[in-house]
Amino acid sequence: MRRIIPLLTFLTLLLALGRNTPTTAAETDILINEIHTNPVGDTEFSEFVEIYNAGATAVDLSNWSFTSGISYTFPPATTLNAGDYYVIAETDPAGAFTISFQTKFGFPPDGVFTGNLSNEGERLVLRNSSGVIIDDFTYGDGFPWPLSGGGSSLELIHPSFDNAIPGHWRSSAGNPTPKAQNAIFATNAPPAISEVTHTPLTPTSADTVTITARIADPDGVISVTLQLQLVEPGNYIALTDPAYASSWVDVPMSHQGGGIYTAVLPPSYQVHRRLVRYRLAAVDGLAAAVTVPYSDDTQPNFAYFVYDGLPDWSGAAKPGDAGPLGTVITYTFNTLQDVPVYHLITKASDTADATFHPPSTRSSGYTGEDYLWKGTLVYNGLVYDHISYRARGGVWRYAMGKNMWKFDFNRGHDFQAYDDYGQPYATTWRKLNFSSVIQQGNFLHRGEQGLFESVGFQLFNLAGVEAPTTSFAHFRIIDGAAESGPTQYDGDFWGLYLTIEQWDGRLLEEHGLPDGNLYKMESWTGELNNQGATAATDKSDLNAFINGYGPNQTTVGPQQNNETWWRTNLDMERYYSYRAIVDSIHHYDIGSGKNYFYYLNPETNQWSVMPWDLDLTWANNMYIAWNAPTPPNCGVTIGGDPFHQRTIYNANIPAFNLEYQNRLREIMDLLYNPEQTGYMIDEQMAKIYTAGQPSLVDVDRAQWDYNPVMIAVTANGYLRNYVNLSKASHGRYYQQPAGTANDNFPGMADLMRAYVSTRTTWLNTCLLTGTAQVPTKPVLSYTGTAGYPVNQLAFAATPYNDPQSDLFGAMEWRIGRIRTPGVPDFDPNLPWLYEMTAVWESGELTTYDPNLTIPAGLLQTGETYRARVRYKDSTGRWSNWSDPVEFTAGTAVPFPANSLIISEILYNPPG
Question: Model pTM?
Answer without folding.
Answer: 0.93
